[in-house]
């Protein structure tokens, strides 16, 4: 039973969006699709230990969920009018576009951005509790947010289909942002968690599907290239204890060089379309890191120049913070520290600002100040993997005093 439960949980986390998309598309109702799929998952837990796992577990779950949904419609006075129309149709089969259709629906422009992200993460297999933890809000608050978002979709009659091309301009930026956040939610803390790795892979796959669906949108290709480049070095990002390994210490022999080459080709094709955006610029920075023979051999001047271009399109202080890291290696640690300190009024509450200061102060042999900055970074960090990393950094700096 334990192995089947683990399998069902893994299928849910990796394929939830596609299964929900297939059922929601046919039923026109996220809540009904979710309820039906939950019943199907419970049915799998009862039957698979004795009957064995079917050849197509996701197909079995969607078909079973479809039958459960029809049963629910027949019992529901509101649903009886619909059941005659949909019951004659064959069970839906999860298609290539179903996950993207679900993401487009979850990113409907009438939803506020936090609701879009939360609903997409939920449709991608995260529990309400996990999403609440990611957003640092109480569980009841997140449950209400998700319920309200689903009610809004139902009230507006949102169709769970990939929208027509004329709607891309309104919907695409939110979809790109949400896919990026889905990837990051899995990538940042995936060292000890197979489930988080699956979420990161889900983000990569969604980005690839979006790029294939919209070949004339270079930012979709840029996002896919960016996520592929990050994912290509995932094997070196955590050590055997599940601890973060920073880029300068990663074993580059573990990187997936073939994936890096494919991502670089995808990025070049996007750039040739002549409409460069922030995702392409971020992918360009990632490519410079991925293609360098070593951390020291990175073309830091080119990285810094790309951050300048990125800041022109996305004037965020975090972009300037990252630019300062390139300044350290392209120009020197003292000018880089000046750049970081200039951001104090905007980033003093951000743990990575203090972490960057700690590294620069240590490079300038200002050990006591570096240790104080590292301790503040540890105080502000919330992600367990980052807290462990900062704890190690505090220990290192403390021993050097």
TrEMBL record:
Pfam families: DUF6596, Sigma70_r2, Sigma70_r4_2. One of its GO terms (biological process) is DNA-templated transcription initiation. It comes from the Bacteria. Residues 21-76 form the RNA polymerase sigma-70 region domain. InterPro entries: DUF6596 (IPR046531), RNA_pol_sigma70_r2 (IPR007627), RNA_pol_sigma70_r4_t2 (IPR013249), RNA_pol_sigma_r2 (IPR013325), RNA_pol_sigma_r3/r4-like (IPR013324), WH-like_DNA-bd_sf (IPR036388). Keywords: Sigma factor, Transcription, Transcription regulation. Residues 171-270 form the DUF6596 domain. GO terms for molecular function: DNA binding; sigma factor activity. Residues 105-153 form the RNA polymerase sigma factor 70 region 4 type domain. PANTHER family: BLL6612 PROTEIN, BLL6612 PROTEIN-RELATED. Belongs to the sigma-70 factor family. ECF subfamily. This is RNA polymerase subunit sigma-24.
């Amino acid at each position: 039973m334990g192995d089947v439960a683990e399998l069902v949980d893994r299928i849910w986390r990796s394929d939830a969006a596609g299964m929900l998309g297939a059922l929601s598309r046919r039923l026109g109702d996220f809540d009904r699709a979710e309820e039906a799929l939950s019943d199907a998952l419970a049915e799998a837990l009862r039957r698979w230990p004795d009957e064995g796992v079917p050849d197509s577990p996701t197909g079995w779950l969607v078909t079973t969920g479809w039958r459960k949904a029809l049963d629910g419609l027949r019992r529901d006075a509101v649903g009886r009018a619909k059941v005659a129309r949909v019951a004659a149709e064959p069970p839906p089969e999860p298609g290539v576009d179903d996950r993207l259709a679900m993401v487009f629906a979850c990113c409907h422009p009438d939803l506020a951005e936090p609701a879009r992200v939360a609903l997409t993460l939920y449709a991608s297999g995260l529990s309400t509790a996990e999403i609440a933890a990611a957003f640092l809000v109480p569980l009841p608050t997140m449950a209400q947010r998700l319920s309200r978002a689903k009610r809004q979709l139902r009230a507006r009659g949102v169709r769970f289909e990939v929208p027509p091309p004329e709607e891309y301009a309104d919907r695409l930026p939110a979809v790109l942002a949400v896919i990026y956040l889905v990837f990051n939610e899995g990538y940042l803390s995936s060292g000890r968690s197979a489930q988080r790795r699956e979420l990161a892979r889900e983000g990569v796959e969604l980005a690839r599907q979006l790029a294939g669906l919209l070949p004339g949108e270079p930012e979709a290709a840029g996002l896919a290239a960016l996520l592929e480049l990050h994912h290509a070095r995932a094997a070196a990002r955590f050590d055997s204890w599940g601890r973060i390994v920073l880029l300068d210490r990663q074993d580059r022999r573990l990187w997936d060089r073939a994936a890096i080459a494919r991502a670089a080709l995808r990025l070049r094709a996007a750039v040739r379309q002549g409409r460069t955006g922030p995702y392409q610029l971020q992918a360009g920075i990632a490519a410079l890191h991925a293609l360098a023979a070593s951390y020291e051999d990175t073309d830091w001047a080119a990285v810094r120049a790309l951050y300048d271009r990125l800041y022109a399109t996305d004037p965020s202080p975090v972009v300037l913070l990252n630019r300062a890291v390139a300044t350290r290696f392209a120009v020197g640690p003292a000018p880089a520290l000046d750049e970081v300190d200039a951001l104090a009024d905007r980033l003093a509450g951000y743990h990575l600002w203090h972490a960057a200061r700690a590294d620069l102060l240590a490079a300038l042999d200002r050990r006591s100040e570096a240790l104080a900055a590292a301790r503040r970074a540890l105080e502000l960090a919330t992600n367990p993997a980052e807290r462990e990393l900062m704890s190690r950094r505090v220990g290192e700096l403390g021993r050097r005093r």
